[in-house]
Amino acid sequence: MSPILGEVVGTMILIIFGGGVVANVSLKKSKAEGGGWIVVALGWGLAVAMGVYAVGNVSGAHLNPAVTLALAAVGEFSWSQVPGYILAQMLGAFLGGVIVYFQFLPHWEKTEDKAVKLGVFSTDPAIPHTLSNLLSEFIGTAVLLVGLLAIGANKFTEGLNPLIVGFLIVAIGLSLGGTTGYAINPARDLGPRLAHFFLPISGKGGSNWKYAWIPVVGPILGGVFGALLYEVLFKGKVTAFFWSWTVLSAVVIAAAHFAGKRGTHSFTHGERIKN
Fold first, then answer.
1. Does a structural domain hold residue 224?
2. Could you give the dihedral angle defined by the CA atoms of residues 37, 169, 193 and 263, in that order, rounded to the nearest 10 degrees?
3. For position 113, which CATH number holds?
4. Which domain holds residue 148?
5. Looking at the whole model, is its pTM more than 0.85?
6. What are phi and psi of 27, to 5 degrees?
7. Angle of helix 82-103 relative to helix 3-26, nearest 10 degrees?
8. 274 occurs within a structural domain
9. N or C: more exposed end of the chain, with fewer CB within 10 A?
């Protein structure tokens, strides 16, 4: 198996288990309906662990464009391989979403809530707020990369690393995930969101494209920042790239804040006119 195919398969496994657990606890008439957040967090952690176990020896099991870009940024992955890995991750995530759709085929019609259906495929914020939603994804993915690099720096019993990575995902979900659903992975959100858009899901609503940029941009900015911060804190490597990326992240977050405030004011004004 080639590394590119490995990323397709690994990311597909990630979404089958991850999207699957959300469908299991959310869709009507599922025997696991109402399973709750702890079940979701455990399911996603095991989803990552299974994906890493499956293809770790084939591709390194990035399964996440933010991880791929972050590793390239600190010199642990070739930039020439980045585009192929990201495309493979996107394809795998899309296919995983399609498989989840067929697994729960009769349950879509039984579930009336359009937001619940979309939530099986992609994330959305508990409280829509551009700045805080972007910051949540930034912080969550920065923590992910610091954690991944710290895990990689330690020696565990052979074969245990993927499980430790899974526990890291569980920890992020339990501690930080309630704000936005912790995408912390552009492919995990965008690939299944595209599946939601194209699939003939009974009674579905829109795919919430207005929000879709946040779980893409936030994890990319946060992931690269987290990897660069790890280099600063644990290896003493303070580079121009670190400062440049820090400034870029601050500018993007500030721009998102002002754009979000402008959008809120426009919405409020529009509501006054309508009412």
1. yes
2. 80
3. 1.20.1080.10
4. 3-263
5. yes
6. -75, 145
7. 30
8. no
9. C
